[in-house]
Amino acid sequence: MEKDGSNLPMRLLYGNPVGRAVLKGMLVIGAPKVMAWYLHTPFSKGMIRRYIRKYNISLKGYPRVGYRCFSDFFERRRIKNRFDADPDHFISPCDGMLSVYPVTDRAVFPVKGSEYRICDLIEDAELAERFRGGLGLIFRLAPNDYHHYAVVDDGYMHEHHFIEGSLHSVQPIACENVAVYRLNRRCWTLLETDHFGSAVQIEVGALAVGGIVNELEDTRVRKGQTMGHFSICGSTIVVFVEKDRIELLPEIKELIGTEIEYKVKFGEFIGTRKVQE
Fold it and tell me: 195: domain range?
């Protein structure tokens, strides 16, 4: 468990008015886009070895290939996905730090001192109503995490809805000072699952993360399938589930609303199906 993954650069940018002014200027001039462009060029290839050492990244389970640029390395795909296949088990869609927040009867969930209306995130007020009294699961990916994400259950995946926005960091210090999930670039998708009712998954872009790449749309999907991936650095996935659909593991359930994060892995069992009366 971790309470805060903030680092010094993020504290300098988000922790005081001067830093936030500098950040605003960076966003206005398109600094994240320039950074993303560089990381897609062969000039960035030299960063790969330093990145592996800095974040202690294991390449076990990945194809032995050469990478043209840092972006190719970052978006590398595992040879085989591993996930809990029990149909009564709800899985994590990705690697990351998980925090869980209750959704109120007004379809609002509080995070880091900000209140978010689900309809502001997905821009669909009617759909947002389905999640009154449910749960919001926030998975924050770090630079050393695997940045592909999975389908959480068998079911039907509807079309993707892309919402253009800013590219703020998703570090805790940023979330305390900016309404990140409402302002950032994001893509949301409705999944009608076979075992857990309706769920909405939102991929949220972050500082230097311009790319949200989804591979499946308007089709039947299988639990554990790769749904898509992020391009460059850490980001966040938010999943909303309906009321009384899942029973989280005790060690996760006790953290609901506390802002304490729990480490999870792609495909890991994090809750069970609640029997509907």
Answer: 89-273
